[in-house]
Amino acid sequence: MLKRLQSLQFLKTADCSSLEEVFDMEGINVKEAVAVTQLSKLILQFLPKVKQIWNKEPHRILTFQNLKSVMIDQCQRLKNLFPASLVRDLVQLQELQVWSCGIEVIVAKDNGVETTAKFVFPKVTSLRLSHLHQLRSFYPGAHTSQWPLLKELKVRECPEVNLFAFETPTFQQIHHMGNLDMLIHQPLFLVQQVAFPNLEELTLDYNNATEIWQEQFPVNSFCRLRVLNVCEYGDVLVVILSFMLQRLHNLEKLNGKRCSSVKEIFQLEGHDEENQAKMLGRLREIWLRDLPGLTHLWKENSKPGLDLQSLESLEVWNCDSLINLTPCSVSFQNLDTLDVWSCGSLRSLISPLVAKSLVKLKKLKMGGSHMMEVVVENEGGEGADEIVFCKLQHMVLLCLPNLTSFSSGGYIFSFPSLEHMVVEECPKMKIFSSGPITTPRLERVEVADDEWHWQDDLNTTIHNLFMRTHGMY
Asked: Which domains does the chain have, with CATH numbers?
């Protein structure tokens, strides 16, 4: 039996409805030294009665120094993954994924761990925890954990656990507060030293918390983070607080959705205002979805603003309280796609100054916003003030019941690359623009599926569509 366990390299156990334990070593009588197993990958799926993977002290018989990947799914009675004494063997572990289990702690207490436990996972690069509704802590006691090579961290639907904390209360503090249950509810990650120095992707989805970050985090924490996904995350008001701007200087993609309490994406006030404008210089994509409380991406009066000159895609959908998309002075010199849908409080989309910066914009989509009156707001510019959308090829204006024109100002608009344009369900749009406009490559305007119109030029076409809609021919 022991020899077979030693030579085992890959174990997948699935759909065994009566299995209660995976490794039962209590019957093995070992006289020789502890053996080393070759097991490198462990997959357990759909084992509804499994209560534990290992018996309490497997390290007395076998060590698991070659284990690289652990994937556990649909084991509803499983309360923990590893006994604490086994963790020291996991020096080769690279991937840990746990879904839809009854897990209460990742590491369970045993007799071989000191009072303040320290767990090190030197080679783990991917950690995914999903739908663990009973998870309360990483370890039920005072501890620290280190993840020096972790690149991907995804925590989804773990509502009973706090993810990050700078410190935990002492036993004396907990006893004084009369809440001994707090000994069990330890944070998933205790950040006392530099945390996640190599983390590149962080996904937080449906976790009950009032904040993501803490100001006490060491400065170099999260310094390589490139992708941040925040979805249905507790009562968070601001996605990126001002003190995190310095730490997230490598951020490239930001995705926020279904966070009902979020009012602001970036907070700029109160911290290193002289340098914060440069902190997000690598951000390329911002995708915001279903944020009903969002009023602005950052406050208009924040000086200086953000450096978003690397931004290539800005998509904002279903943010009904949004009153302005960006401050008037922001520059989007590399923006390729601007897509704004169902943001009912917007009366205009961008300022003339922002419009002038959109020299690389190729796609402009605007729709479903019932208060929108113009796309480019009128700031009283000079009649000869020209705005050129050099690269714009596709423009969509859809379901905008109060849109009267693209701009009511006297600006000169030029669209040298515009080839495809949709104007649909915009009943109050009388004219495209009150100033001169050139569209040398545009030959027709789509007004419905497989229905196109064109007469002379864009202004004439839009005006005739208005007359036709209101029966004024």
From this structure: 1-225 (3.80.10), 331-473 (no CATH)
